[in-house]
Amino acid sequence: MTTRKRMRRGSTLPLTIVVLAGISLLASGLLHSAWRAARSADSARRAQQVMRALDEAAVQAVASYASDSLTRHDLAHRVWRPDLLVETVRVRSAWQRTHPLVAWLELDAQSVGPIAAGGTLTPRRTERRAFWLSPPNVPREAPLMALAMVEGEDGAIISAVAPAHSPWCSGPYLAPTVPPVLAGDVAPSSGHLWATAPVWRAMTPGQRESVERAWTQVLARVPTYASADAVQSPNSDPGWRARRFDVPTLTLRGPMRWQGLLVVNGNLVIDGAVEVEGALMVRRSLDARTGQLTVRGAVIANDAVTDVVRLGPFSRLHFDPCAFDLALATIAQPRASVFGIRTPGRGW
Q1: What is the pLDDT of residues 136-187, one digit of tens each?
Q2: In angstroms, how far is CA 213 from the centroid of its own chain?
Q3: Are residues 209 and 92 in the same domain?
Q4: Residue 26 belongs to what domain range?
Q5: What is the DSSP string of 260-328?
Q6: At 140, is the secondary structure helix, strand, or coil?
Q7: Above 70 in pLDDT, residue 22?
Q8: Same domain, 254 and 218
Q9: pTM for this one?
Q10: 94 and 13 fall within a common domain
């Protein structure tokens, strides 16, 4: 064997090793690229699932807003909702009111499904979405609105002069000029005089329709209490609240104070000193002849021509549109998403 042949045969092995190393590096690069592509695709898929889960949780939270009893808590109280599992994403959510007509929905979504081979990221996203709250369209065109008869005695006072500065609203509150009473008729109670009977106006057909529509909206939003005993001492539940009672006759025995919206889907009898700050809505007759009824806000009563509002000598009705609006705010519901503040979590 010549020297030239030996040199040629000795260089073949290193060349083969170099070629195999290059092929190995190329294969490794291709595998790494495929792994990165699979990982990116998995992260993108899971990120899309998280976004869909956030939207679905927000839709369900708005749909069940009334059942979360948010209005039974003070402002800034956080009401947690049950966890929601959408596909492979678990969403935690909570409502919080920072204003009578503004609610924030906090959402925390995290993927809990299996991670693709080689994946190390767990997509997570937190958001805060603001919602304007829309109260029902209830007219407040007088401190006392009654579809039928209003009877009173000397001493009963109905004032349509709204306070210049309400204790519940900051700064001056724009109050409309309204008559003291809108009713079907106003007269003294049988066997009594009412020399100080207020100036009143007859309800127009349009005002009657507004009141009837308001009853439909309010009854659909206010939770029902089966027993009348639950409201005999509402002082134990302070703050702006909303309650509804479907009973033939509800008797409120004082001394007691209610702040917010009180709805009686029946007759209401006042016995003792009863003070209501906000809105009092009585579907049938209101009898305050033997009690001391004080309302700062407005009263809506009657649904049939046979119903009567009877005011006693110690009845005091003072028009306060701010208190009335705050009472209706207790049953306001989300109407539109205004904006969202998004806080990114891991995996973004």
Answers
A1: 889 988 999 998 889 999 989 999 888 877 676 755 566 668 889 998 888 8
A2: 20
A3: no
A4: 3-135+333-344
A5: EEEEESSEEEEESEEEEEEEEEESS-EEESSSEEEEEEEEEE-SSTT-EEEE-TT-EEEE-HHHHHHHH
A6: coil
A7: no
A8: yes
A9: 0.73
A10: yes
